[in-house]
């Protein structure tokens, strides 16, 4: 999909954050979302936009010359608090993050946020957001859309990238019975009907992914089970069977209460994994391209991350 004219790298986050808040506030008011698919930005969102638009933050220069790609995207890391405040951290290109910037103090109306890269250029161009009433919205370069209701049946919604082979960033959603479902995305961000990936995914306390971990050009995910074992699911590129049989990476991962991937943190051309331990320390697992154990030994990023209730 071609880049949209006038799109500015590193300035996408303010626009999407603003539209996301607007969509949620409108979506939680009965009867207004369908009548007005592109609502006016309410005052709290406008204030958030001004706060962040005044301080543009372009992507950090890569240390090794690798730019963002669909297989190794470079996404900001977003962090929310229970009081409704939301912050953004940009990858610094050296395996860490820049100082945080405040995005919003009105984020408590959102129960799930999924950053996506529909044009597959390695940077985010939209967000799917779920409001507390179960309505799912998309805010992107193409405008705001109401995707539909009923998304409260899922306890986890995320997008590791292109799973179906068509090019857009697809959604995975786990229902409360442990069944994992795949929604393929169209170029405009709307979604197909769901395809069942399989059952038994409730054995996992965390599932994440962003891009390609093993270097084969296909989108992968990892999952941590209740015993603390981490499992690697290699992507196939086939939406009817999006993952190969799982491979055990190793044990001891119950030391972490949150796994998240923002893509290629150190800008070496491979997508990485982030893990927060129960003391609030954030660790980076750099991808090594391996097919069975795709990560190097962990590297400490820093402490204080336990102040956030969610990272995405």
Folded structure, characterized:
The protein has 312 residues and is mainly beta. The protein is 9% helix and 32% strand. It has helices spanning 12-27, 43-53; strands at residues 77-80, 86-89, 101-104, 110-116, 126-131, 136-140, 143-148, 154-161, 170-175, 180-183, 195-198, 204-208, 221-225, 230-233, 247-250, 256-263, 272-277, 282-285, 299-302, 310-311. The strands form five sheets. It has a four-stranded antiparallel β-sheet. Helix 1 runs antiparallel to helix 2 (43-53). The longest helix has 16 residues, at 12-27. The chain starts with 11 loop residues before the first helix and ends with a strand.
In short:
With about 300 residues, the protein is mainly beta. The protein has 2 helices and 20 strands.
Key attributes of the depicted protein:
single chain, mainly beta, four-stranded antiparallel sheet, globular, disordered N terminus
What's the total helix number? 2
Secondary-structure element series? HHEEEEEEEEEEEEEEEEEEEE
Strand content: 25-35%
Nearest-angstrom radius of gyration? 18 Å
Shape descriptor reads globular
Give the mean pLDDT. Answer: 82
Poorly predicted parts: 1-63
Helix-and-strand structural type = mainly beta
Number of strands: 20
């Amino acid at each position: 999909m071609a880049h949209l004219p006038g799109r500015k790298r590193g300035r996408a986050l303010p626009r999407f954050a603003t539209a996301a808040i607007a969509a949620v506030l409108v979506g939680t008011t009965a009867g207004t979302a369908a009548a007005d698919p592109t609502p006016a930005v309410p005052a709290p969102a406008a204030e958030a936009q001004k706060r962040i638009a005044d301080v543009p933050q372009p992507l950090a220069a890569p240390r090794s010359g690798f730019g963002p790609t669909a297989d190794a995207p470079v996404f900001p890391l977003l962090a929310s608090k229970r009081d409704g405040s939301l912050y953004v951290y940009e990858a610094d290109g050296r395996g860490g993050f820049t100082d945080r910037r405040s995005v919003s103090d009105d984020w408590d109306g959102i129960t799930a946020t999924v950053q996506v890269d529909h044009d597959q250029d390695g940077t985010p161009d939209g967000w799917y957001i779920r409001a507390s009433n179960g309505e799912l919205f998309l805010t992107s370069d193409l405008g705001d859309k109401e995707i539909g209701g009923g998304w409260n049946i899922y306890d986890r919604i995320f997008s590791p990238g292109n799973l179906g082979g068509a090019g857009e960033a697809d959604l995975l959603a786990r229902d409360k019975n442990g069944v994992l479902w795949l929604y393929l995305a169209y170029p405009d961000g709307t979604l197909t009907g769901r395809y069942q990936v399989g059952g038994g995914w409730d054995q996992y306390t965390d599932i994440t992914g962003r891009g390609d971990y093993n270097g084969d050009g296909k989108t992968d995910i990892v999952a941590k089970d209740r015993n603390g074992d981490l499992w690697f699911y290699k992507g196939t590129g086939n939406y009817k069977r999006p993952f190969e049989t799982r491979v055990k990476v190793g044990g001891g991962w119950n030391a972490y209460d949150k796994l998240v991937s923002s893509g290629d943190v150190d800008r070496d051309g491979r997508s990485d994994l982030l893990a927060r331990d129960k003391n609030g320390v954030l660790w980076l697992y750099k991808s090594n391209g391996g097919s069975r154990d795709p990560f190097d030994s962990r590297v400490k990023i820093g402490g204080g991350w336990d102040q956030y209730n969610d990272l995405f």
